[in-house]
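Input C-alpha cells:
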C-alpha cells in the first residue's frame, strides 16, 4: 500500500502582500511623467521652453495650447493631449511639416518635430483662433 503525502499549504498572506506591493509600484509609475517631475501636464509659459531631450508634450485645455511656445530638438517626439470637451488639431501653417489630424476629447496624438531648425507656427484647423509656435533648434 502506497501512502500519498500531502504538501503543506502555503499561506496566501505572502502572495497578497506581494500583489499589493506590485499594484502600489504600478500606480506610482503610472503617475510619473518620466522626467522626474510629479505632473504629466506641460506648464503654460510666456517664454519658450528649453529643448526637450526625448520628447515633450502640448496640452490642449480651455481652447489654448500649453505651452503656447515650445522649443524642441530636431526629430523630437511631441505628444499632444486634448483635455477639452471638443476635438482639436495641431497643424503647422505653410508647408505643414506636421499635422496631428483630429484629436478627440480625452485623446492623445503624437507627431515628430521637423528635422530642419527654425520656427513653425501652428493652429487648430477646427478653431483657427487657437495658435501656438514650435521652435526647432
Amino acid at each position: 500500500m502506497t501512502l500519498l503525502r500531502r504538501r503543506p499549504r502555503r499561506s496566501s498572506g505572502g502572495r497578497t502582500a506581494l500583489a499589493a506591493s506590485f499594484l502600489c509600484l504600478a500606480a506610482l509609475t503610472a503617475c510619473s511623467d518620466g522626467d522626474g517631475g510629479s505632473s504629466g501636464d506641460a506648464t503654460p509659459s510666456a517664454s519658450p521652453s528649453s529643448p526637450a531631450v526625448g520628447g515633450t508634450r502640448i496640452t490642449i485645455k480651455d481652447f489654448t495650447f500649453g505651452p503656447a511656445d515650445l522649443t524642441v530638438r530636431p526629430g523630437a517626439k511631441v505628444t499632444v493631449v486634448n483635455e477639452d470637451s471638443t476635438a482639436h488639431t495641431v497643424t503647422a501653417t505653410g508647408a505643414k511639416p506636421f499635422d496631428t489630424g483630429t484629436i478627440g476629447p480625452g485623446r492623445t496624438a503624437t507627431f515628430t518635430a521637423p528635422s530642419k531648425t527654425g520656427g513653425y507656427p501652428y493652429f487648430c484647423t477646427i478653431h483657427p483662433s487657437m495658435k501656438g509656435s514650435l521652435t526647432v533648434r
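The chain has a mean pLDDT of 75. Residues 13-31 form the longest helix (19 residues).
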